Amino acid sequence: MKSLKTTSKIKKIALEFSFYYEIWKKYRKLSVKRKLTRAQKKEIQKFYKKTIGRRVPLIWHKFLYSRTGNFSPYYIPVGVYRSEMIGRMNNFPFKDAYADKNVAELLFPDVIQPKTFVKNINHHFYADGQPISREEAVARCQNIEDAIIKPSLLTRGEGVRRIHIHNGITDYKEKSIDQLFKEYERDFILQATVHQHERMKALNPASVNTIRLLTYRRDMEIILLYAVIRIGRAGQVIDNESAGGISTLIHPDGTLGQYAFGAPGHDQVEKTDTGITLNGYAIPSFQEVVETAKRLHYRLPHFNIAAWDFAVGEQGEPIFIEWNADPDLSQSAFGPGFGDHPEAFLKEIYQNRNTRHSYW
């Protein structure tokens, strides 16, 4: 037992260091690098020693302070969040099964979702809730005007492609749909592209621009921690910041913040590539999206924190895209991940066992 605990501790340290290294590389790319004062450093460490019982690396505070110009002792260090906090909020061994994009229709059958043509789960093909052969899956996908194919177990926009299929040939390197299925191999989904509301499409017509919500369950209450919108860049299909998109906060009244943030070096963007000024831009059906996400979160008793991606349809209807059991924190766009009064959250979280240790 002692050796297992030692192994888990070593792996936790290694995981935290990997995130430390990644954020250090991003910090070095910033055009403006602000230093923390002695008083600011003291304030940060005092807060974390009081809430989680230890000091934390300061590089995340330096990065976010440099990038946004706003200092806060309450920024959440991503290495700590990933190695210690996520596993205390969510039952990590259940993560992949519940967050599989292929089971969303089973978990949330009463919300609007993109039309699904075929699914592949553990090498097996399905359509309309029934198993089908590979040959039938290929036959069903010979002519599709506009579709999205993506891995069902990956996040951050990895492997997402928008394709058009004519007589079995896609416009992706002129590969046949059968060749594309072989390339994805297993655990993927092919869905119709969402036709979004004109105000969402105006931000970038090439991508489905999504509302990202982070919700937290506290007993019988679902709390909205923050909301941001993710917007693709000109010609890009993916809106994720990690894939080149930008994101900015959504105020409680559904209007956007002044600045969006993308990859380091694309800081404080005030207009989309289509020329729309972000500040004050109104997002349609925002409150309806928030209430839908809160309602769905109650169906996930193993997960106290969840991220939700919604599009807004042509008639203003919320369209569920996916949820994430291992979400990032959009602290550049929004601010501290748990707000300006996170003490109660952190103390509550650290009372739980870290289930990530059983997931190493």
Give your account of this protein's structure.
By secondary structure, the chain is an alpha+beta fold. It contains 11 helices and 12 strands. The strands form 2 sheets. It has a 7-stranded antiparallel β-sheet with strand order 3-2-1-7-4-5-6. The chain has a 5-stranded antiparallel β-sheet with strand order 10-9-8-11-12, with helices on one face. A hairpin with a 2-residue loop joins β2 and β3 (130-132). α1 runs parallel beside α3 and α1 crosses α4. The longest helix is centred in the first third of the chain and has 28 residues, at 2-29. The model has no long low-confidence stretch (mean pLDDT 93).
Q: Low-confidence runs (pLDDT<50, min 5 residues)?
A: none
Sheet bearing the most strands, described?
Answer: 7 strands, antiparallel
Rg of Cα set: 21 Å
Which second-level CATH architecture of the largest domain applies?
2-Layer Sandwich
Please state the overall shape, judged from the principal axes of the Cα atoms: globular
Write down how many β-strands occur, each being a DSSP E stretch of 2 or more residues: 12
- How are the strands of the biggest sheet laid out side by side? 3-2-1-7-4-5-6
| Estimated share of beta-strand residues | 15-25%
What's the CATH class label of the largest domain? Alpha Beta
